[in-house]
Specification:
The complex is a heterodimer of chains A (about 220) and B (about 750). Chain A is mainly α. Helices cover about 80% and strands about 0% of the residues of chain A. Chain B has about 750 residues and is mainly beta. In chain B, strand 33 and strand 34 form a beta hairpin. The chains are: A mainly alpha (about 220), B mainly beta (about 750). Chain A: Keywords: Signal.
Chain lengths: ~220, ~750
């Protein structure tokens, strides 16, 4: 009887720990999927909050904070869509929040290429608030973050996606080039094909952006 | 047992199947304004929600029993409460307290204008200083477009709110700078010595400044040098009046850097073209060099060295007013060396240290003479004194240490001390070989303490006090300072400032045979400002009272300080408006100053309007960047109403100064234009950064009269005018290895 009892207790413990990580995984999976399909700014804000709560509850997982930062920075990008400058008031608090999230993620996972991708996006977001006055500060900062991301993992497809995106949106007179953008995006596609995320909730976003940019070039 | 187990499992299942609890409510601040975007969560669970634009939230949870509800919002203090989750619906009404933080808190701004790239609420940034059309890349030139500063063109320096140029002191990285400007030349304003490119931040305080700064009755110009450069680079600049080369090297680990620069300026070509109204018999010629290193001493600490030397020469002659057909000649050679070592460090999370030492060595050789029509030196009877030689040597040492202890929120206390040593030697030799040596030494020691007290996010006070001892005067002074800032609305705040300021007598009027004391100014300032990211509006009223100003009399043919019986006042109203919002890529600012001031000091026979103060001063600065042309166009209009001028002479018979003639100059008008063409701006991967600069000051060729010179007997007078009516500058700056334009236009623009 004793044996049964202990087996039961052990399996209960095992079960509960499975249940725990299962709970984490189950909570993350639909939200990670939603990141790719949600284009409503309020829903992304909700996702940012949800990821932050998971991060706070789990305490040792970097992914929830990473996605929270990504969601925050995405709301900033959406706000600034099609506008140039004059948004620092609105974008700075968002960038601050994203910064806070990515710092928490970085504390749990050092030298992570994916985290530097977000850092690049945050620096770019800050610059977009007031490009004329900020490009000298945040331009090199964004560049540096992207270089670090590449150095840490040259196979990270998002490095080439962001490079291509920059080339795509920069007017030609300022050094942008659709041709170079295409090359970079093709390179990114090859990297995506070869890329194996560590799990089904690890970062693997961005493919849709390539398709969108490519369709714009036709 | 099995049954029991089965029951247990069943119970667990039932438990998880029970209904969810709905939590809902509102999040507001303490004034009951809804807070959108607040995060509401059940601690250690995934359940929670985000408040909407009305501050409402609702979410469901399966958690049961005693839980902790946590609410957070950016800029607010966190809120936590234990709750018992059992009912099907729980309602909450939550009020969050504002957190005191730099973003939202009031900033004490009365009296000061800050130019910086870092802080969000600054008025100018460092680029503004180099792109202001009338400034010619001179720091004080740009400051003169701000309210409070006068358009004085006949001598260098900042004349602020009825004060003389000597009442403004300049600090680099905390320590006092002696000889900030090139040595004075009669009736020709000189530039500042330092390039605006070496500074990342500028604070121009027109009054009411902190107890950290002293020995300035009117104003403090506080400059902060740049930290590590972004990248290594080499720079070249070429213009018809000179050139410069430099290199800046950033170490691989990005923890240290060094750089050297050398420049040569000779305005001979410009003057050939522009035909100056003065006769330079030695064209103004400058050699300047500087060197720097910067070392990161920790994640927060940095040690910075900046060293500078310059050697310049010029000689100028003008038709003499005193005797027709002859000329007054003036020749100047100057050597100047300046070293500044500054260190800042955070010690733990509460303490900050800022310290620095600076050393200056300055040498002037000045020759005055009378020349005949053939330009050879002559000594005329009665005017022998115009032939003289002056050798002046100055050695200056300054040190300062400031400790800061952070308190709760943004509150902090700061204290420290400052030491200024100066040794001025001047050997004056008259035509007949008579020598008049003069040596003034001063050891000024100061201690200061101040506290920033944030009572709430909306109300802050800065209280400070400064104690100084001068060995020269053998006296102490104690100067209290206080300012208060109150946030009156979103982006708007009102400030008040009060302070007492002391200053030593100017050395050129020393030594005195009488016992002297510090001159004193008392400032009262009231300010209102509304600042958003793209617009700035400020209005400021001030009253300044002067006591114990220096009076002079003539001893041994020299104007010397005789007493502290001078006094005066200045009051006025100033406006500033800057707008980058209304028109895209177009930026302008307007400043206007009204000044009412009178004083009795130096040789003034009584209380009167000083000759360096205009009643009305106005500036309009326009900047437009046309991205398609990669060109920035800058224009600037400056106006100042006429200033009084006097012929004050010493009457030997009654031992008094009297006014023999007076008048008022015509109004001052100047329109300046400049064009900056940046062929590589925003170009990605470009390894070279080029700027072409073309500028014209006083485009319309307005006749500008700064005042009048009189002959020694007062029979003749002559207008003081700029050396050239308009000045044209053309130059190109090349920078290699630095691509400052990376990532300028990015994916989402």
């Amino acid at each position: 009887m004793k044996k049964v009892f202990f087996t039961f207790l052990a399996s209960l413990l095992l079960l509960s720990s499975f249940a725990q990580s299962d709970k984490y995984h189950n909570a993350m999976l639909p939200k990670v999927a939603a990141m790719d399909t949600t284009h409503n700014i309020d829903m992304i804000k909700d996702l940012a909050g949800a990821f932050e709560r998971i991060g706070d509850a789990e305490k040792t997982q970097w992914l929830p904070y990473y996605y929270s930062a990504l969601a925050n920075v995405s709301t900033g990008y959406m706000l600034s869509m099609g506008k140039m400058g004059g948004l620092a008031d609105q974008l700075d608090p968002i960038a601050d929040k994203a910064d806070a999230m990515i710092s928490k993620a970085e504390a749990l996972s050092k030298d992570n290429s994916e985290i530097y991708i977000i850092k690049k996006m945050i620096a770019t977001l800050r610059m977009m608030g007031d490009p004329m006055n900020r490009y000298m500060t945040y331009g090199p900062q964004a560049q540096q973050a992207l270089e670090t991301a590449k150095k840490l993992n040259p196979e990270n497809p998002r490095v080439y996606l962001l490079e291509g995106e920059d080339k795509f949106y920069t007017p030609e007179q300022y050094g942008g080039s659709k041709e170079e953008a295409r090359k970079l995006l093709e390179l990114a596609t090859a990297k995506y094909d070869a890329f194996k995320p560590a799990s089904d909730i690890d970062p693997n976003w961005g493919r849709a952006m390539i398709q969108y940019l490519m369709s714009q070039m036709k | 047992m099995r049954k029991f187990l089965a029951l247990g499992i069943l119970l667990v299942t039932i438990n998880t199947l029970t209904a969810q609890t709905l939590l809902k409510g509102t999040v507001k601040d303490i004034k009951d304004h809804p807070l959108p975007g607040a995060t509401i969560a059940i601690k250690d669970s995934y359940d929670g929600g985000t408040s909407d634009s009305a501050g409402n939230f609702s979410f469901k949870t399966y958690e049961k029993g005693e839980q902790t509800l946590v609410v957070t919002a950016i800029g607010y203090k966190g809120w936590e409460q234990k709750i018992a989750v059992k009912d099907s619906t729980l309602g909450f009404s939550i009020n969050l307290k504002e957190e005191i933080n730099e973003m939202k808190a009031v900033v004490i701004t009365a009296g000061s204008f800050e130019a910086s790239d870092k802080k969000r609420t600054t008025v100018l940034n460092s680029i503004d200083i180099v792109t202001t059309a009338s400034a010619n890349a001179d720091i004080t030139g740009a400051i003169k477009t701000l309210p409070g500063a006068q358009q004085v063109g006949e001598s260098e320096g900042l004349f602020v709110r009825g004060g003389t140029a000597s009442e403004t002191k300049t600090y680099i990285d905390g320590t006092l700078v002696n000889n900030f400007f090139y040595t004075s030349v009669p009736n020709i304003a000189q530039r500042g010595r330092f390039s605006p490119f070496i500074f990342k931040g500028t604070v121009f305080s027109a009054g009411g400044y902190s107890a950290l700064y002293g020995q300035a009755l009117s104003s403090a110009l506080i400059l902060e040098s740049i930290d590590l450069p972004e990248r290594s680079s080499a720079n070249i600049s070429i213009s018809p009046i000179g050139g410069a080369v430099g290199i800046q090297k950033l170490a691989k680990d990005k923890r240290s850097s060094w750089g050297v620069n050398y420049g040569y300026t000779n305005i001979v070509l410009a003057y050939k073209v522009l035909n100056p109204r003065v006769d330079y018999y030695h064209m103004p010629e400058f050699h300047t060099g500087d060197a720097n290193f910067r070392i990161k001493t920790s994640t927060t600490g940095i040690l910075k060295y900046y060293g500078y030397f310059s050697q310049n020469q010029l000689a100028v002659r003008n038709p003499s007013l005193d005797t027709l057909g002859y000329k007054d000649a003036f020749r100047l050679k100057n050597f100047n060396m300046y070293h500044n070592l500054a260190w800042r460090e955070n010690i733990g999370s509460y303490w900050k240290f800022n310290g620095g030492v600076s050393f200056t060595n300055n040498k002037d050789n000045i020759n005055g003479s009378t020349q005949d029509s053939k330009n050879s030196q002559v000594i005329l009877e009665g005017l022998e004194y115009k032939n003289f030689h002056l050798d002046a040597y100055g050695n200056y040492f300054n040190a300062k240490a400031v400790f800061e202890r952070r308190l709760r929120g943004l509150s902090a206390v700061r204290f420290g001390s400052e030491y200024n040593y100066s040794n001025d030697k001047a050997d004056y030799t008259l035509y007949n070989g008579n020598k008049y040596p003069n040596n003034i030494k001063e050891n000024l020691v100061a201690g200061f303490a101040e506290a920033d007290i944030y009572l709430t996010n909306d109300l802050a006070a800065k209280l400070g006090s400064r104690l100084e001892h001068s060995s020269l005067l053998n006296k102490y002074n104690l100067a209290p300072r206080a300012s208060l800032a109150y946030k009156v609305g979103k982006e708007a705040q009102a400030s008040l400032a009060y302070g007492i300021f002391y200053q030593n007598p100017e050395r050129k009027y020393l030594p005195s045979t009488n016992d002297l004391t510090f001159s004193k100014a008392t400032h009262y300032i009231a300010q209102y400002q509304k600042v958003s990211t793209l617009t700035t509006f400020r209005v400021e009223a001030f009253y300044k009272k002067y006591n114990d100003l220096i009076k002079t009399s003539v001893t041994n043919n020299q104007e010397t300080a005789s007493s502290n019986q001078g006094y005066g006042y200045a009051k006025g109203l100033e406006f500033f408006w800057r707008d980058k919002k209304t028109v895209k890529n177009f930026d302008y600012w307007i400043s206007y100053s009204f000044l009412d001031t009178k004083r009795d000091f130096l040789n003034f026979p009584g209380e009167m309007e000083p000759n360096f103060a205009a009643k009305h001063t106005a500036n309009l600065v326009l900047k437009k960047f046309i991205s398609g042309l990669r060109t920035q166009f800058n224009a600037n209009y400056q106006y100042a109403s006429g200033r009084p001028y006097y012929n004050i002479r010493y009457n030997n018979s009654n031992d008094k100064y009297s006014i023999y003639d007076k008048g008022r100059t015509k109004d001052f008008n100047s329109v300046s234009l400049s064009v900056n063409y940046l062929p590589n701006i925003f170009k990605k991967g470009a390894n070279q950064f080029t700027v072409f600069v073309f500028s014209i000051t006083n485009v319309l060729g307005s006749n500008q009269v700064y005042g009048y010179n009189y002959s020694y007997n007062g029979l003749r007078k002559q207008a003081i005018i700029p050396p050239t009516k308009t000045f044209v500058y053309l130059g190109v700056f090349l920078s290699f290895g630095v691509d400052r334009t990376q990532e300028v236009i990015n994916s989402n623009l």
